[in-house]
Amino acid sequence: MKKIGIIYGSTTGTTEAVAGMIAEALGVDSADVHEVSTISEDLVNGYEVLLLGTSTWGDGELQDDWYDGIDLLKGMNLSGKIVGLFGCGDSESYSDTFCDGMSVLAEDLKGTGCQMLKGVSASDYNYSSSLSVVDGNFVGLAIDDMNESDKTADRVNAWVAQIKEELN
């Protein structure tokens, strides 16, 4: 399998926990799971596949640590790299901006040359609006661990199976 790096930004620990779940399900070593504030061009260049995770804050914004991280990635040539996104949100309290942070990452990565992995169907989620939904699918894996924690493991495992299929 291709060399996978998982990069996340997490304020409350939820996105960090989901990053760990994804790593475990993919068999990615914990040394290849990085908090976004610690990344560098050299680190990013060491991976063929980047799985990027963010929570959504305020009116659909990225987690704070991502602002420098996305600037770094936007300035790189990511041609030949495969990128997948995962995001955490609250579909009840922030139903109109659910997991919008993923859409910010997706938009900012346009023009870097990376190939994006497919997202998951939005049909199994309850929310009113999300910029992260395109043609009925999220741009990555959406997680609402606050209101639907009973679905988190199944959603992670289904996305990981999808990733494995795409990477083969």
Topology:
Blueprint: E1 4-8, H1 14-26, E2 33-35, H2 41-45, E3 49-57, E4 61-62, H3 66-74, E5 82-88, H4 100-109, E6 115-116, E7 133-134, E8 137-138, E9 141-143, H5 149-167
Parallel strand pairs: 1-2, 1-3, 3-5, 5-6, 5-9
Antiparallel strand pairs: 3-4, 7-8
Helix pairs in contact: 1-5
What does this structure look like?
The protein has about 170 residues and is of the alpha/beta class. The protein has helices at about 15-25, 40-45, 65-75, 100-110, 150-165, and strands spanning about 5-10, 35, 50-55, 60, 80-90, 115, 135, 135-140, 140-145. Strands 1, 2, 3, 4, 5, 6 and 9 form a 7-stranded mixed β-sheet that branches. The model has no long low-confidence stretch (mean pLDDT about 95).
The tally of helices reads 5
Structural class: alpha/beta
Portion of residues within helices: 25-40%
Rg calc: 14 Å
Q: Which regions are unreliable across 5 or more consecutive residues at pLDDT < 50?
A: none
| Mean residue pLDDT | 96
Element order: H for helix, E for strand: EHEHEEHEHEEEEH
Number of strands: 9
Main β-sheet: number of strands, strand sense, barrel status?
A: 7 strands, mixed
The general outline is globular
- What is the percentage of strand-forming residues? 15-25%
Distance between the termini: 8 Å
